[in-house]
Amino acid sequence: MNQLALSDQEFRQFQTMIYDIAGISMSPAKKPLVSGRLMKRVKHNGLSSYGEYFRLLMKNGGNDELQMAIDLLTTNETYFFREPKHFDFMRNRVLTERKPGRPFRLWSAASSSGEEPYSLAMLLADVLGEAQWELVASDLSTRVLEKARTGLYPMERAEGIPKHYLTRFCLKGTGSQDGQFLIARELRNRVQYRQVNLNETLPKMGEFDVIFLRNVMIYFDMETRRQVVGRMVPLLAPGGYLIIGHSESLNGVTDELKVVVPSVYRKP
């Protein structure tokens, strides 16, 4: 049996790498996660240590293997209609006060494998009907973005989806897709997926009425939070909302946004 151990020094190398690239601070408690997620790649490349694998990543910067390692280390669990109060707030407050006459624009800034943007797309399609809306969804990981674009999920993931949405917006898989469900094509076509690193200068995407940045900042240190939010504020339209995770706060991060309810902030 191959005993592949991740030394503290090797862990620190990956710790520094992921902080430099993605702004993510990994505590020593994440050492087993790093070891577990990268082990297959070390073996796949015929290497005998994590140190060798790190040198491989550094040798050809920007290579596919580096992207794969980043994907493995930054992917976090998500699910449909997570933190339902935010969807209630969207329905009862944000969408009711929307000014007609221009497309309503929303950015899911850490979309992971698509559960959040598709939840939002169902809500927008339901509430806005024929009105124009645009939904941009982004993530650092190309692997989860590819998964998100397919819109195909195991049936057990459907748990959080309201029954009437499930009937209206999802198709039950048959044959080779048995035990899975597919987000309807008209909804998949409404979501624009793109790779964005929140730790770098943001691409030109226009202004948004709402930005969802949920359960991401818990992985950033205070300075990185300030920088990430500082890049996002200019992309919020006046009166626009920034929605973060219930366990997160913008205390000490920015004074450009005003708290509306816990985890929901507004640009004056």
Brief summary:
With about 270 residues, the protein is of the alpha/beta class.
Characterization of the model:
The protein has 10 helices and 10 strands. The strands form 2 sheets. A 7-stranded mixed β-sheet has the order 6-2-1-7-8-10-9, covered by helices on one side. Strand 4 and strand 5 form a beta hairpin. The protein is globular, with a radius of gyration of 20 Å. It has 268 residues and is of the alpha/beta class. 40% of the residues lie in helices and 18% in strands.
Task: Give the secondary structure arrangement, pairings included.
Blueprint (H helix, E strand, L loop, with lengths): L7 H15 L8 H14 L5 H10 L4 H11 L9 H11 L9 E5 L6 H14 L4 E7 L2 H9 L1 E3 L8 H7 E3 L7 E4 L1 H4 L2 E5 L12 E6 L8 H11 L3 E9 L13 E4 L2 E3 L2
Parallel strand pairs: 1-2, 1-7, 2-6, 7-8
Antiparallel strand pairs: 3-5, 4-5, 8-10, 9-10
Keywords:
268 residues, alpha/beta, Chemotaxis Receptor Methyltransferase Cher, domain 1, Rossmann fold, 2 domains, seven-stranded mixed beta sheet, three-stranded antiparallel beta sheet, 10 helices, 10 strands, globular
**Which geometry do the CA atoms define?**
globular
Give the proportion of residues in helices: 25-40%
The pLDDT mean sits at: 91
| CATH class call of the largest domain | Alpha Beta
Number of separate structural domains:
2
Helix and strand content put the structural class at alpha/beta
Strand content: 15-25%
- Rounded to an integer in angstroms, the radius of gyration calculated over CA atoms is 20 Å
Strand sequence of the main sheet, in spatial order?
Answer: 6-2-1-7-8-10-9
Major sheet: size, sense and barrel closure?
7 strands, mixed
